[in-house]
Amino acid sequence: MTAPDTPLPDVWFTRDLPVLRAIARLVDEGAHGGSPYLLGQVVPASGLPKAEVVNAARALVSAGYAEALTNHAGDIVRFTGISPEARRLAGLWPTPQGEWERLLEQVTARAERAPTDVERERWRALADAATAVGPDAGALLMSALIGGYVPRVR
After folding, report:
1. Alpha carbons 33 and 47: distance in angstroms, whole number
2. Handedness of CA 66, 68, 70, 76 (dihedral sign)
3. What is the top-level taxon of the source organism (predicted)?
4. Phi, psi values for residue 78, rounded to 5°
């Protein structure tokens, strides 16, 4: 039992995120024509015991990550959709941080595999500049690109 003055254990990575990813996979696959997915389908897809899936499902619905249908007793019986943020958290949609990391991987790989010394130096310079910009500014840039906003030159 946890003492009253200490934080509760983190359940996001061990319980809620695996259940969210299982729901996202089911909803995104659409194997049943977009039909609502039973809680019973999420349990094996998550790899967690039913009691943990039920608790995670309640948390995900109350946080607005998942949409669900309930029975008369208020128990979740089906999932009907997920929010845009849930799509990002599950990995279905890009995040600015993830896209910045992908950009860095690409320019580094191109620098390593460039066919000529001139091209190799150009890719290395770009990789060095991107690294110097840093992950925070890089994520802001990728956020603008993902969202379709590119500042205009004045």
Report:
1. 24
2. negative
3. Bacteria
4. -145, 150
